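Exercise: predict the fold of this chain.
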Amino acid sequence: MSTAVLRGYPRSLSCNASTVVIRLMTAADGPALSAFVQTLSSRDLLFVRRDITHPKVIMAWLQALEQGNVTSLVAYDGDELVGCTAIVSDTLSWSRHVGEMRVLVAPAWRGCGLGRALIQECFALGLERGLEKLTVQMTVDQQAAITVFEELGFRAEAVLHKHVKDHEGNAYDLALLSHDVAEVQALMETLGVPEALDSEG
């Protein structure tokens, strides 16, 4: 059974001279998600643990929504999916208090605040789910993304040497960043994040 989300969706964000609608992902978003993945580079795909270019991985992602271990958001400009997130946790593991964040934004929609808004929404969902720690991983050359996370209070915990390979077989160092959720909550209140997105659908 899926985990109930109390935070109100859909939510709206002005971005790229358009209004992007952010809402919870459902199984019906499968085709749009598959199309979105095709807009991403191999380097972008390394933000997630599994290769989401494979249909079986997309299917497993959508099925996990119902199992309650994954909470995902999608961002749409009209009928086009332009960004998505996931918070992944394992209620049966020793790290059930930890959620792994994954945030992906279409190349044409970067630099307009969409990625930051999606990260902030993940913070709110992490708080709602009672998670105590949030983590994120990315290759060390993703400096723009690392900067955004660090500005929101994430700190590097480790760098894993040549830990991931892209489709072409190129190996990259992987940075692991984390944030204490209680600190995130205090930061959100300071930044006024609850007002960051227009609550009107």
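Check your answer against the key: The first strand starts at residue 11 and ends at 15.
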